[in-house]
Automatic annotation (TrEMBL):
InterPro entries on file: CBD2 (IPR001919), CBM2/CBM3_carb-bd_dom_sf (IPR008965), CBM2_carb-bd_dom_sf (IPR012291), GH (IPR017853), GH10 (IPR044846), GH10_AS (IPR031158), GH10_dom (IPR001000)
Name assigned to this protein: Beta-xylanase
Organism phylogeny: Bacteria, Bacillati, Actinomycetota, Actinomycetes, Streptosporangiales
Domain of life of the source: Bacteria
Keywords annotated in UniProt: Carbohydrate metabolism, Glycosidase, Hydrolase, Polysaccharide degradation, Signal, Xylan degradation
Annotated CBM2 domain residues: 359-469
Signal peptide bounds: 1-31
Active-site feature positions: E266 (nucleophile)
PROSITE patterns per the UniProt record, alphabetical: CBM2, GH10_1, GH10_2
E.C. code: 3.2.1.8
SMART domains hit by this protein: CBD_II (SM00637), Glyco_10 (SM00633)
Length: 469
């Protein structure tokens, strides 16, 4: 065990110049394209994705969800049938998992959804309630669900899809028992459950100006006039490539002019399969149109795509012969649509020569501190701190360096360390798998060395060279 601690600075001073030279030489010459979330942060925009908690077991999925998006929406895990399948029996595991993930990765969360006719357990959908009973059931559900995540989920789809394609109130248990007032009641309950949350109603086929979005425009005005706490409107954005409404921006603007926040909450732009280059280019133009429409209106606060990649999209299961609706393909490769979003957000819209693809590690700026916290004879204890200076989390990090000659690493903590020849690879343990944007992880190990201990000449986090501080 270490016996004689010595000041770290003395040792570091002797190697600082050499280390800085080595780090500078190892810095890649090209500028990497920032991930979407960094660009969105610069625009003050939420750039989100629908995420399925169970898919977070997959490292590529997890990494892409964390790296590319600054906001997430539970695709299914927060719906009534998931959280309260039986009266009073709540089940939070899926919902909690994504909330934890988002917190680890510095992401906002859009809560989807509280009061919806679909994915509603049969005890609610087919229950025979008096108005007072149903009001109590809704209040319990809203209060318990929003209360659990108070301060963690910033925005909520309080009521989802209350109006049908015929622009009339949809036939649901809520409307049958309570009439259209169920919408205002739900909003009041939500405000009481979390006074800080931003409260939305949300629907599809209301992206452009049409009879259904007109019905929402009237509904929003009615709700506001009667003092219901409506803060925002979600335009889902389930669109068909080449057939986008041309007045999306005007539609966003008219809701924003009512003082409402507007978000594109579930964007996907599907095409008829198979994919061709021409279709991908059309889709890229379509994504540009939606992004530009949102960015042009100051009240439009975000765009969320409905799935992390094409492999996770609901589209192929619901529309025979259609698919490829998202900006990242089945193999986690950026599609032209990805680069059109990138460009709309102020990026260069193209990959650099050696850039990683979406979600690949090493898209940020890393810094490494390598300190000898104690030394004795031919031994030392080293503490390594890896700082993630990018705007995105680094998942399942991997730090590599060349071991100085004559050195042996004998034991490690807070990291799993592998050595192959002189190459050392440090990776995470269960509790430090993610390095949050602006965050850091530290780990340590013990070494023996033949002469004086020295700091390695360079470190790489994933494919990116790190600065040594
Ligand atoms: O993407 C969701 C899919 O996995 C579910 O099977 C489906 C069930 O209705 O819901 C999908 O998400 C929907 C969202 O919750 C509300 N707007 C429409 C979305 C696509 O159907």
């Amino acid at each position: 065990m270490p016996t004689t601690p010595r000041p770290v600075k003395t040792v570091l001073a002797s190697v600082t110049a050499a280390v800085l030279l080595a780090a500078a030489a190892a810095t890649p010459a090209h500028a990497q394209s920032p991930p979407l979330r960094d660009l969105a942060d610069q625009q003050g925009l939420r750039m989100g994705a629908a995420v399925a908690s169970h898919l977070l077991d997959d490292a590529d999925y997890r990494r892409t969800a964390a790296t590319e998006f600054n906001s997430v929406t539970h695709e299914n895990d927060l719906k009534w049938e998931s959280v309260q399948p039986q009266p009073g029996q709540y089940s939070w595991s899926g919902a909690d998992r994504l909330v934890e993930f988002a917190e680890q990765n510095g992401q906002q969360i859009h809560g989807h959804t509280l009061v919806w006719h679909s994915q509603l357990p049969s005890w609610v959908e087919n229950g025979s309630f008096t108005p007072a009973e149903l009001t109590q059931v809704m209040e319990d559900h809203i209060d318990t669900t929003m209360g659990r995540y108070r301060g963690q989920i910033q925005t909520w789809d309080v009521v989802n899809e209350p109006i049908g394609d015929d622009a009339q109130f949809r036939n649901s248990v809520f409307h049958r028992v309570l009439g259209e007032d169920f919408i205002a009641q739900s909003l009041h309950m939500a405000r009481a459950a979390d006074p800080e949350a931003t409260l939305f109603i949300n629907d599809y086929n209301i992206d452009g100006i049409n009879a259904k979005s007109d019905a929402y425009y009237e509904l929003a005005q009615d709700l506001l006039a009667q003092g219901a706490p409506l803060d925002g409107i979600g335009l889902q954005g389930h669109l068909i490539s080449g057939q986008l409404p041309q007045d999306i921006q005007q539609n966003i603007q008219r809701f924003a002019d009512l003082g409402l926040e507007v978000m594109i909450t579930e964007l996907d732009i599907r095409m008829t399969m198979p994919v061709t280059q021409q279709k991908l280019e059309q889709q890229a133009r379509d994504y540009t149109q939606v992004m530009d429409a949102c960015l042009a209106v100051s009240g439009c606060s975000g765009v969320t795509v409905w799935g992390v990649t094409d492999a996770h999209s609901w589209v192929p299961d619901h529309f025979t012969g259609e698919g490829a609706a998202l900006p990242i393909d089945d193999d986690y490769e950026a599609k032209p649509a990805y680069w059109s979003i990138h460009e709309a957000l102020g990026g260069d819209g193209q990959n650099g020569p050696d850039d990683p693809g979406p979600g690949e590690p090493g898209t940020g700026t890393c810094e490494v501190a390598y300190d000898f916290t104690s030394q004795w004879g031919q031994g030392a204890v080293v503490e390594v701190t890896v700082h993630n200076g990018s705007g995105s989390a680094v998942q399942d990090w991997s730090l590599t360096w060349e071991r100085p000659s004559g050195e042996q690493i004998s034991s490690a903590w807070n990291s799993l360390i592998q050595q192959s020849g002189t190459t050392v690879t440090a990776g995470p343990v269960e509790w430090n798998r993610s390095i949050a944007p602006g965050g850091q992880v530290s780990f340590g190990f013990q070494t023996t060395h033949a002469g004086a201990p020295s700091v390695p000449g360079g470190f790489s986090l994933g494919s990116e060279s790190c600065t040594i501080r």
